[in-house]
Request: fold
Amino acid sequence: MPFKHLHLETENQVGYLLLGAGTRFNKLSVTTIRELKRALGQMEQDGTINTIVISGYPGESFAVGADIGQMLHFSPTDALRFAQLGQSLFDQIESCSKPVIGALNGITMGGGCDLAMACDIRIAVDTLQIAHPGARIGIITGFCGTRKLPRIVGKNAAREIFMTSEPYTASEALRMGLVDRVHPEKDFWPMVKQFAARIAAHPAETLSTAKKVLNASEDIDLKSGCALEAALNGTLWNTRSTSNPTP
Amino acid sequence: MPQRLCKIELKEKGIAILEIPGSEATTERQLLEAIRRQITHITDTSEIKGVIVTSSDSHFCTCGIQEYHPSPYTAAELSSFGQQVTFLLEKTGKPCIAAIAGECTGVGLELALACDFIVAESSARFGFPGIEEGRLPFCGGTQRLSRLVGKSKAKEMVFGGELLSAEEGLAIGLINRLYDDNLLSHAQALLEKICTRSPLAIRIGGEVINAGYDIDLQTACMLERDAFALIFSSHDQSEGMQAFLDKRNPDFKGN
Reply:
């Protein structure tokens, strides 16, 4: 089944998942979220893909939030179902066995910001504008942002971002730790591709183990985390020693 | 009891300025009691939309005559009381910014840490020098500081007792914004902008951030999902979205 709102490409073991609505703003509508889930599932199954990049189609926004016209008349239970759908996408990204890089190529707002935060690593273009403007339209986010933003940038910076609802620049985002790398517009795609290809060249099982153990570090205490690290290293060593016997 | 130990002044657009004494001769308990009364006033006064906690003195609350504690019980009791006051400050349901010039230490820093975030002028200095007399933060400061700047930075500050400069505070995320001058007018402009947003979204958002911070991701996201759904029964949601679609300014009511 073809995708209406996504373009899929593969290059150097990297799967590119590009949001492209054919308009300036890529909205996270119900259809787009469902397509993202389906495409992500396909790429996770695809043995030729070792790393996934989510981005906006070049020249457009990364992603803005939901379709406000669509949400205006939501009942509380519609809203609950919509939050559930979005959260299930972000859970899928986090549980995906392959690294997922968010390449923030332009305007990143609301649900788009939450999508970026579900990615393992965020690379931004220097013209980035990133915002969480829910309070401007009378809502909070329902896409895990209230939990993730404070963990990424600290509680106080997160409160400021939510409360002002204003856009922040690439350098502000870098200073706060909201994005990990920033590149000028002309170098952006080559740098994203180079970085993603570098990660994709590493052994798949090691990447998936690394992702699992690093994600766990956020939620569990140090001792349990260390026990998990030891157990996963044991499994990993076992896999690698049988698949690539060392001399 | 000292009269008007902390003053509160209601400016235009619902902005209240809560002034904490810089270095008045008062005990920590008297100061905390005065602050608690003002926090209750802020919470109960619907005309107050947002709060700036600051000091008109050259320092922001370096204060407090330390009380002599005849027993561990009275010391623990003062600590519980101080924690109660900072929790109340966190829970006014209104945006609250600490605006700091000069030294902000001890109870002063504890109060600043309980605000939504801190902005400062370059003269600001932050720290917990109480360690030199063998004292620790007691109004929740150890917990809030380490969550904000990380455990090792918090230890560096609490063990060492040295004061951090405003630039250092910005670098480690203790303060959000640093201004060269006109601290209060910058803080006021920022808060006025925040007060144009939905008070309901700000209040519920703040509560969900606090509730979700210390728990696991799945439970926190479920909590957020339910709060998100609740907002779709509010005036602010339908008004905010309709105004956005109509390209006009929303008329939020906070319900």
The radius of gyration of chain B is 19 Å.
